[in-house]
Amino acid sequence: MVLLDNDGFLLALTKMFQNNRSAGSVILTLKKYDGRTTRKAPATPADNLCLLRATDSKKKLSTIVSNKEVTKFQMSYATLLRGNMDALKKHDKSKERKERKRKDM
């Protein structure tokens, strides 16, 4: 797993979305990060941190965002997601409606 700075993470995430546009998927996770790397009791962190991870079948990326940088990062991250979520498929509800009608009869 590659730990990147925030801008590098966004650039690499953009490339990952472009590589998986026609086929494939990108999995994004977000969790609170307390700064520890082992299972020992965590030291009290100076500020709240978030750990973001992105992965496809070939590559893994991660970054840590502090609470001071969260608004700037969130705006850039939201813009990136809006720009790359246009290739999603619409959910076909016609099959579900036909199955419901068969069950009702």
Structure keywords:
alpha+beta; four-stranded mixed β-sheet; 3 helices; 38% helix
Largest sheet: 4 strands, mixed
Strand order of the largest sheet: 1-4-3-2
Shape: elongated
Structural class: alpha+beta
**What is the averaged pLDDT score?**
86
Residue windows where pLDDT falls under 50 for at least 5 positions = none
Describe this structure in words.
- The chain starts with a strand and ends with a helix.
- The protein contains three helices and four strands, in the order βαβββαα.
- 38% of the residues lie in helices and 23% in strands.
- Strand 3 and strand 4 form a beta hairpin.
- The longest helix has 15 residues, at 70-84.
Brief sketch in words of this structure:
This protein is α+β, with helices and mostly antiparallel strands.
Please outline the helices and strands.
Layout: E1 2-4, H1 6-19, E2 27-33, E3 49-55, E4 60-66, H2 70-84, H3 94-104
Parallel strand pairs: 1-4
Antiparallel strand pairs: 2-3, 3-4
Helix pairs in contact: 1-2
